[in-house]
Amino acid sequence: MNRSECVSVTNETFLEQNKTRRKEYLYRLLANTTRSLIQMEIKARRLEENMRRIKEKTADLLWKNKDKALWHILFKNISRHVSIRHQFHQHSSLTRIMQDSKGPGYSSPLDAFKNGAREKLLYVVCVQPDLTKQDYLATVDVDPESPTYNQVIHRTYTGSVGDELHHSGWNVCSSCHDNPDLKRNLLILPALHSAKIFAVDVGTNPRKPELHKVIDGAEMKSFNCAYPHTAHCLATGDIMISTMGDKNGNGKGDFILVDAKNLKVTGTWTKGDKIAKFGYDFWYQPYYDVMIASEWGSPKSFTCGFRPEDVPNRDLYGASLNVYKWSTRELQQVIDLGDEGCGPLEIRFLHDPKASQGFVGCAVEANIFRFYKATDGTWKAQKVIDIPAKTVKKDGEEFKLNGLMSDILLSLDDKYLYTSCWLHGDVRQYDVTDPEHPKLKGRIVLGGRVVNDDLTVIEDKEFQEMTQKPVYVKNKRLYGSPQMIQLSLDGKRLYVSSSLYSPWDKQIYPKMTEKGGWLVKLDVDIENGGLKLDPDFLIDFGSEPNGPVLPHEMRYPGGDCTSDIWLVKE
Hints:
Elements: H1 3-43, H2 48-75, H3 84-90, H4 94-100, H5 109-115, E1 121-127, E2 134-141, E3 151-161, E4 169-170, E5 186-190, E6 197-201, E7 210-215, H6 217-221, E8 226-233, E9 238-245, E10 251-259, E11 265-268, E12 282-285, E13 290-293, H7 299-302, E14 320-325, E15 330-336, E16 344-349, E17 357-362, E18 367-373, E19 379-386, E20 390-394, E21 397-401, E22 405-410, E23 416-421, E24 426-431, E25 439-445, E26 456-459, E27 472-473, E28 476-477, E29 485-487, E30 493-497, H8 502-508, H9 510-515, E31 518-524, E32 531-540, E33 550-555
Antiparallel strand pairs: 1-2, 1-33, 2-3, 4-5, 5-6, 6-7, 8-9, 9-10, 10-11, 12-13, 13-14, 14-15, 16-17, 17-18, 18-19, 20-21, 20-26, 22-23, 23-24, 24-25, 27-28, 29-30, 30-31, 31-32
Helix pairs in contact: 1-2
């Protein structure tokens, strides 16, 4: 064999080996990609619509791009200076899909707003007014294409009585989006009266959740904390739950930590000597090293019903926002909202993780305050919405009827603020594009004290509504009033439930307690503003198997406008 023949054989051998190596590398890349995509499908199985789209797109891309890559390997001399990885990325959009295969939730609020799947299930906390029966989590089918649409399809009972389920949260949420090892599969239900924490498995079978674990109330009380309220997940893998009192029923604002892996109470979050006088809701914004919490009052007062004589007593009802330094967990500032800010309940930072402002709904006087970071580094608050009281008459006696603002939430694009007034009976939509000057864009009345047969409106400064007729949906009268609200990710559907807190329900709306609460849907005009009642959607909780129940907070399987907190990407 001459030299030229040797060189030819050497070149052919080199090229063949090079092709083989590249081909093997490509197959390894495809195998790794396939595994990543399979993991992504498993994590997204609760979002059936997205899962179908991803499956179809993945199959198409894998087949097409495999053909392209093999075509280049077999019939073209790929340059040594261009990596196969680069070629593969140039010929497909698979890189983007792989980047989306991350942890729970969405990468940003706008990602959820624009790309989030339509809700198909609602998990609704239901409280039994009959204390000999169990509270439960109701699974409601809200998929218009489903044969069980507009029905309660499953009930997950607590297994005990006297718990008073109230709010709910997740084991993980969008604050953990960058961790692909975490799964949003447990709904966390703190019980206001028993101090138990119920973890419900909604991942194994989203349509039939099962009770996964019960954390006994003694664990929380061992840290002198009780009356748990809001649950949020933290990026650390912990679950944080706000508490409103000590084990004896005195007011105390603190936070319990639960390890999300083993579901054990590990202690309290707060450090330092300062403890808030009262507790209720909270929202954190790590970009500004801050967490802000709101206040209700002393459990010794509010668990006995609504007593107007207790409201002016600042040892029984709160009127402040408590500002914590996030990194040190210390209470650094208390913002006194005054009498007009009595009972600051639901607190919402803007969803934008770089926003330094938000809103809090103050129940008693039905006002909304905007809180914000001032130029001097402190946090301040200003009243931006004031819903005036109505003058009413009952049994010949005139008195002022405040709105009692019980819930607020923000759309994921931070354009609209929604609120409910539990005594006036209306749901409102405000455009908060200019947060200092909200504009009322939509309003609908769904009940309230003003439709009671024994109450007459004498003066309505805002709308001059002197009479208000009862509201009927599917031939059922809505007794009670709108209370908790939950917005779809795209902002087009607002779900409304009727129960505030069972001792107050029994006192203020005994007919609702007797006949059962309800859940309705409002269609939202997100372009021009406006709310419209869907006449064909009603969940009647007066027709439940164990008697009438009281529906409170609502969640979607994949997170929603009030459960998830986003962090600034590094």
